[in-house]
């Protein structure tokens, strides 16, 4: 019995991964129209409107079904355009782009040689970060010096001493 359960667990693990990959590719091709939020929301509206129409009106069952399906279709599009699209376009991260660091003040934590690279530490409301930096003026900038980020090129901050500005 133990080996049977273990075998079923291993089989379901591999089969589950296979089916997950297969269904992911299938649903990616369909797009967001089969979003679970849409499907379950629409089914809830269809069921709810069917119950309410059956209980509080004297119409026949076929008319209730057709009217519930129409109400559900309308709710599907309302949910899609007012919930799914705005939620998919919403920014999910509080991190900032490296290009947002232009103009920020920081401190050198690894000396920046005149023609080499060092490291700077920059604090912001979104958190602190250390980045690779080069001297904008091509002069050595010692550790502990206050700097300002002049520009960002290829992920490298070009900085200048704050006193020189």
Explain how this protein is built.
Helix content is 48%, strand content 22%. It has three helices and five strands; from the N terminus they run αααβββββ. It has a five-stranded mixed barrel with strand order 1-2-3-5-4. Helix 2 packs antiparallel against helix 3. The radius of gyration is 30 Å and the shape is elongated. The model has no long low-confidence stretch (mean pLDDT 82).
Shape descriptor reads elongated
Strand order of the largest sheet: 1-2-3-5-4
What's the N-to-C terminus distance? 78 Å
Work out the radius of gyration: 30 Å
Oligomer kind = single chain
H-E order = HHHEEEEE
In the predicted model, the low-confidence regions spanning at least 5 consecutive residues are none
Mean pLDDT: 82
Tally the helices.
3
Which class best fits the helix and strand makeup? alpha+beta
According to DSSP, the number of beta strands is: 5
Biggest β-sheet description = 5 strands, mixed, barrel
Q: What is the helix content?
A: 40-55%
**Beta-sheet strand percentage?**
15-25%
In a nutshell, what does this entry contain?
The chain is an alpha+beta fold and 165 residues long. It contains three helices and five strands. Strand 1 (105-110) and strand 2 form a beta hairpin.
């Amino acid at each position: 019995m133990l080996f049977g359960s273990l075998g079923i667990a291993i089989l379901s693990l591999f089969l589950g991964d296979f089916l997950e990959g297969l269904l992911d590719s299938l649903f990616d091709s369909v797009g967001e129209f089969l979003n679970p939020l849409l499907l379950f929301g629409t089914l809830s509206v269809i069921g709810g409107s069917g119950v309410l129409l059956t209980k509080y009106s004297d119409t026949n069952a076929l008319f209730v079904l057709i009217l519930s399906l129409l109400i559900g279709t309308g709710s599907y599009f309302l949910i899609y355009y007012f919930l799914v699209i705005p939620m998919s376009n919403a920014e999910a991260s509080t991190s900032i782009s490296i290009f947002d660091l232009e103009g920020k003040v920081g401190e050198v934590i690894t000396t920046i040689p005149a023609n080499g690279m060092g490291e700077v530490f920059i604090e912001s409301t979104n958190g602190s970060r250390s980045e690779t930096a080069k001297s904008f003026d091509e002069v050595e900038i010692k550790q502990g010096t206050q700097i300002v980020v002049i520009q960002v090129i290829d992920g490298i901050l070009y900085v200048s001493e704050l006193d020189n500005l």
